[in-house]
User: Fold this.
Amino acid sequence: MNTFSNVRCVGAALALLVAAALPVDGQAPDSMALIEQGRGLTRQLFAGDAQALFPRLSPELQRLMGGEAGIQAFATQVASTLGNETGTEVEEVVAFQGAAFYTRIARFEGQPNGTVTISWAWRGDTILTAGVRPTPQPAPSGYVDYQTKTALRLPFDDEFTVYWGGRHPHQNYHVVYPNQRFAYDLVIARDARTHTGDGTRNEDYYCFGRPILAPAAGVITVAVDTLPDNPPGEMTPAAPAGNHVIIDHGNGEYSLLAHLQSGSVQVSAGDAVEAGDTLAACGNSGNTSEPHLHYHLQDAPEFGPAARGMPAFFVDYLANDQPVERGEPVRGQRIRPRR
Assistant:
């Protein structure tokens, strides 16, 4: 039995689908100073120093924690349940949209059969999120060692940033879902921001309306175009993929491109497409809180729990301006096709 299951993870939703950070080019330029801040917050938590932590919590987080007594109880539970740290596997901090996001994945005496993820997000002196939880495990997959057969190009000509991508939970929350095990969420970021202004309109987002292209030749099996785009911050869980297109590449591999702009899909089921053909525009439909492209490769012609995600190796692209002949982009990389 996991005795740690009741320790909470609390905070405001700040990102796509779940609260998380978008690293831009990996660690922030002043990453060591930010790491020290994250370590300091963690020390205060384990010391039960609610008087130091509580005034820094955002009003929403203060309410979620149940006041100073709530954070004191939270800190006491964390320290008594976990005991001493015995090793650190991952420690990183990223800066995005004016906030810093700290992640620490560590081993503890009281959690001998797995690791614990400690996370903080703050902007200035205000703590936006605080989380302590068992590190989620990737979903079992028979495709872990699979090599993509299709020569996949990136599904856009612009430079996008990988918001979620990689094979580990701290890089990519999708890995816990069998049908999205190797998925990507992709945005356009400028100066570590995904939008101009206050981001209250879809049109504020740099990726909204940008062309989304076929990553390889194939036949369209599904094309959905009639769902509305969400206002930023709102989501439609009943239609998780939103407007989307699925391409049968003819070899047991199917590309899914999701959250497309309402009314922008230019293909229909049964159409043949070539690599680079325009499919639609990037949108904000479905279970998404802001405009972005969701892409994954799967082994079935429809999106759903029966499908299984497959690794998607792209070819001939640039990652952080460095050429990649074949690879899997990971969280924080800036990627664009080589021209």
In short: Residues 1-29 have pLDDT under 50 and may be disordered. The longest strand covers residues 111-123.
